Amino acid sequence: MTNALLTDLLQSMGLLGIFLLIGVFLRAKVKIFQKTFIPASVIGGFLLLLLGPQVLDLIPCPAGWFDIYSLLPGIFIVPIVASVPLGLRIGIGKDSGSTNPEVFKNILPLIGIGLGTAMFQFAIGYGTHAAFGSQNLYDVFGIELAIGFVGGHGTAGTLGNILQELNLPYWEISQGVGITTATFGLVGGILIGIVMINWAARHGQTALLKKPADIPESIRVGYEKDIDKQPSVGRETTMSSSVDTFAFHAGLIFMVCLLSYLILSGAKALKIPVLGSISVWAYGMIVMFIVWGIMCKLHIDYLVDGNIKGKISGALTDFAVISAIASLPIKAVATYIVPILVMVIIGYIVTTFILFFCCKRLLKGYWFEQMIGTFGMCTGVFLTGVLLLRICDPDLESPALATYSLSYTITSVIYFAMLNLFIMLPIIHGALYTALVALGIGIIALLFAAITSRISFGKMFKGNSNKSNAVV
């Protein structure tokens, strides 16, 4: 790589930075963006797409920059996914957000419900593919519903990365379709979530919210003006005289990325079956589990702060999202707009029904608050769930955030572990077969939720009321 190439990369990142800042400004000033809570990275990405060479061609920049943007999500997703196990703590106590063991009886049912919803989304996507099969859809069309809804914009880069590693020519189109479904999921999920919160508040289904709450201005505009109210980024686990805390955490993450690439290269060089076809980000997650486990065994886990790790992966996610949207192959994606709309609409309906029906009957205590958080996760990202939870529990008085956070972490690990399966199955056996497999796994996951609820609570909690919500 030459100096000119690195300079080109830095300049192209500068353009992304400009439009990310424009997105921050528009989010703070434009009411429609505030009401729909669209992230600045999504706003800036679509504006750059509109002004870029694919649409209006008004930005005087090299076209090669947008080729770089199409590749960045697949690169950034490796450290993003690899960072997930770092700092992971599963238990009861201060770190988990609650000291009441009863709260955690909801976690296993919630994991089953969340995972079952994701599997049904895979089934809907590939079922739509089978129904529209006469339109010559590419092999994995349909996976983008679950990628976009449960995974969000950043996970579309994972899909592009895997398909590119498999030398499949449609990787960029599939990544673009994933970005499209993620946008539908994010906006639609928030709007549907707010409607459900208003309904629940009026019908006494929320434990703490008696009437629809006014959303704090800081959440709407995207920043907090009062310095005293601005939250801390995290703990400084290392002294800057030795190494900056952000640099230390980033060093751990990048080290794991390198080890993952070396393991994958070795598996390919030795032609080891299966191991040579596993994606590098999957190795990243496995290696990070090992590294974090060693740190815990050596009692040096105090050097890691989950908030710091989260800020690093969050920053990478923002740039992965804006670059993926800016390079979206809009003309190619438009070709599939009808099946995209069909699977998105069915996805809204099925996701809402499963979560509402199952959470109401299988969770005990604060069922709606835990449901609305999981709904946000199943149509957007983790922070979407937190946002919806904050609307019906502004001060986070309920234990819902603790159960939602832990169930999300475990569900996301299982979700990423199964992602390769739903990429290879349609290529080998076709879309209909894959849809049936996903449907079967989804049913098993919901049965797991029902069984663990029965074991924990002794019966199904049909018709949970506001009174029962408060008993935990």
Percent strand: under 5%
Structural class: mainly alpha
Number of helices: 19
Number of strands: 0
- What is the typical, i.e. mean, pLDDT? 86
What is the oligomer described by this structure?
A: single chain
The string of secondary-structure elements, in order, is HHHHHHHHHHHHHHHHHHH
Radius of gyration: 22 Å
Main beta-sheet strand count, sense and barrel state: none
Helical content, roughly? Answer: 55-70%
Shape: globular
Compute the separation of the termini in Å: 59 Å
Q: Low-confidence runs (pLDDT<50, min 5 residues)?
A: 92-99, 465-472
Features of this protein?
mainly alpha, 472 residues, disordered C terminus
Folded structure, characterized:
By secondary structure, this protein is mostly helical. The chain is 69% helix and 0% strand.
Question: What's a concise summary of this model?
Answer:
The chain has 472 residues and is mostly helical.
Blueprint (SSEs and pairs):
Elements: H1 3-29, H2 31-36, H3 40-51, H4 64-82, H5 107-131, H6 143-151, H7 153-165, H8 171-202, H9 217-221, H10 245-269, H11 280-297, H12 306-326, H13 330-334, H14 337-362, H15 367-379, H16 382-392, H17 400-429, H18 431-457, H19 466-469
Helix pairs in contact: 1-3, 1-12, 3-12, 4-7, 4-11, 4-12, 5-6, 5-14, 5-15, 5-17, 5-18, 6-7, 6-8, 7-8, 7-12, 8-15, 8-16, 10-11, 14-15, 15-16, 15-17, 16-17, 17-18
